[in-house]
Amino acid sequence: MFKVDVDKDKCTGCEECINNCPASVLELVDGKSEPVEMDECLGCETCVEVCPEGAITVTEV
Ligand code: SF4
Ligand code: SF4
């Protein structure tokens, strides 16, 4: 299992992470990225790599 954290102070809502996540884990909620399907996370860290703000961290739990 993986835990996805979005730092909402850093997130600009650009949707890069949402558009590139292969498992549709992330959605835009109130203008910020939010992990709504965390159980589906593959731990690939694509979201971490594409986020221009460094707002996402993925940890194995
Ligand atoms: S680690 Fe991969 S599967 Fe998990 S939220 Fe990020 S892009 Fe999606
Ligand atoms: S890529 Fe980063 S800044 Fe853009 S919506 Fe996702 S978390 Fe927010």
Automatic annotation (TrEMBL):
Key words of the record: 4Fe-4S, Iron, Iron-sulfur, Metal-binding, Pyruvate
- Give any Pfam family that matches: Fer4_10
Alphabetized PROSITE patterns for the sequence: 4FE4S_FER_1, 4FE4S_FER_2
InterPro entries noted in UniProt: 4Fe4S_Fe-S-bd, 4Fe4S_Fe_S_CS, Fe-S_Ferredoxin
Q: Which GO terms describe its molecular function?
A: 4 iron, 4 sulfur cluster binding; metal ion binding
| Annotated 4Fe-4S ferredoxin-type domain residues | 2-31, 32-61
Descriptive protein name: Indolepyruvate ferredoxin oxidreductase, alpha/beta subunit
- Protein's organism: Desulfocapsa sulfexigens (strain DSM 10523 / SB164P1)
